[in-house]
């Protein structure tokens, strides 16, 4: 993470000294893992790279059945909280360190036959609000992992309810984009890198394995098609680098540059 801090400003008046809030900016590099096994999944990834936007969904469409569970001693708050949750969309990302996590590649990138898309998000650390464009709106909040007793939790804000999970999920190092909006594509930072999983990269008989695996052949074809299609997109927002990503049995990561588009 990169940090930059601006000086605190003072404003003098006849009777008092006004202290303005110090602005601390943070640049987060977040990862979105996606499978690349068929033409439909190729289209999803192409939409992200072409439009610089990510799909945001409702809380109910996530993969943890305990998402959003809460209790309250004030029954009148239930409808209010439910309504606010229902009006909020979510997009889940992982911290940059998860690039070397085999579990993430296994769960969300089809066993290394997929991608990890890196987006750079500039936040105002005072309130976690995306600061790049006031029209984007939304917040990015790190998920709080703990073995919480859902039957005893009370008086939580909707924001906290939507950004907490059990410790079992902590290896995902999740960050959540929250916005009061409809489901659909939303801009979240600027896409800067696309990492391709490289299954069997260090295996001597990789060619033999590839020739025997229709799934691996399909992945390689889709990978080439994705890179080729991106060459026609508008990259005026910045450079996008494409890299192969390999993780060995010791958990060491190796990336190899394929192409850089401006």
UniProtKB/TrEMBL annotation:
Keywords: Coiled coil. The lineage of its organism: Archaea, Methanobacteriati, Methanobacteriota, Stenosarchaea group, Methanomicrobia. It holds the Pfam family DUF2971. It comes from Methanohalophilus halophilus. Residues 202-229 form a coiled coil. The keyword Coiled coil applies. InterPro entries: DUF2971. This is DUF2971 domain-containing protein.
